[in-house]
Hints:
The chain has 372 residues and is of the alpha/beta class. It has 2 domains: 72 residues, Urease, subunit C, domain 1 (Roll); 284 residues, Alpha-Beta Barrel (TIM Barrel), CATH 3.20.20.140. Helices cover 26% and strands 28% of the residues.
Amino acid sequence: MTSFSLSVEKLFDGEKVLHNQTVLVEAGLIKSIQNSKSNIKSLPGMLVPGFIDIQVNGGGGCLFNQNPNVKTLIKIADAHQAYGTTGWLPTLVTDCLEKMQQAADAVSQARSIKTTGILGVHFEGPHLSVEKKGVHSAELIRELSPAEMKIYTRKDLGQVVVTLAPENVAPKLISELVGADVIVCLGHSNADFETTQKALDAGATGFTHLFNAMSPFGSREPGMVGAALLDKNSYAGLILDGIHVHPMSAKLALAQKQKIMLITDAMPPVGCTQTSFEFFGHKVVREGNKLTDRNGRLAGSVLDMISAVNNAVDMLGVELTGAINLASKNPARFLGLENRYGELKEQANACMLLLDDKGVIQSNWIDGHKIF
């Protein structure tokens, strides 16, 4: 049984900032948090909960769809851990049934050998709206069949998230998914307000990349954006890279809705020098921090979690502790894992980051293991 103690000048536990604290970790869990003894030298900086990213398509030069196997998952994990990600959902965009099965098998195997940080899997599609498909392949968009339902309801995948368009999936099927412990997100959808509300009533609890690829808010029709902002019980992911969402739109969302989660929607260039990659037979090119396909459409992002947190502070004027909660506590609660993740407290998994006073990550621990 591995155990260690860590003394820090400051500690943010998810609720408040404490000074001169010592954390005792045993077997990957936080055993205690106590005031440091006077003779102990504390590490400078602030210890905070690790970040949880519910939408990670790739990183380290790898795209999950291209090679859905454990080797790919390890490479993607390594790329994102340097930026504070301690828990994440490998995300498979719309693909064929065989790829979905391979992805599920890879996640199951990775979790069985305790590959660091994988909390489940996110299937972004294929039950989407062609009108709001973005770079998803229209040829692969389809109705929800028993074959996909069988994958979603597997019990060896951890937390399963499915993004779907409610105009193409009946409320009865959404209720069936939720009843099988699948977390349903709404997105890539042209649904009107009423259709969106019926999906929420059926048990959907999330919105995938708020504002992007969904019916907009209007004066006569609130659309999916309006439904998301008005609903107090659901969570919404936000790609805060200054490209996908205007900072003032993001600020409006935060003012209206408490349950916002920072996500990356990350693609292969995160964590490496790659400037282009293949995506379903088409080339996606990086220009600065922007990824676009040959038609100029956004194709995911090169955002990482610590940048998203710092952008919340710099672009939106959010307090650092509040920004950290958007990247840790909120996604943990969305996934139903708040007892183990998202806060530093006794019996929680020791997923922790040490930040300096400029918001730069100095160290990362995942389940008590120091990653760097």
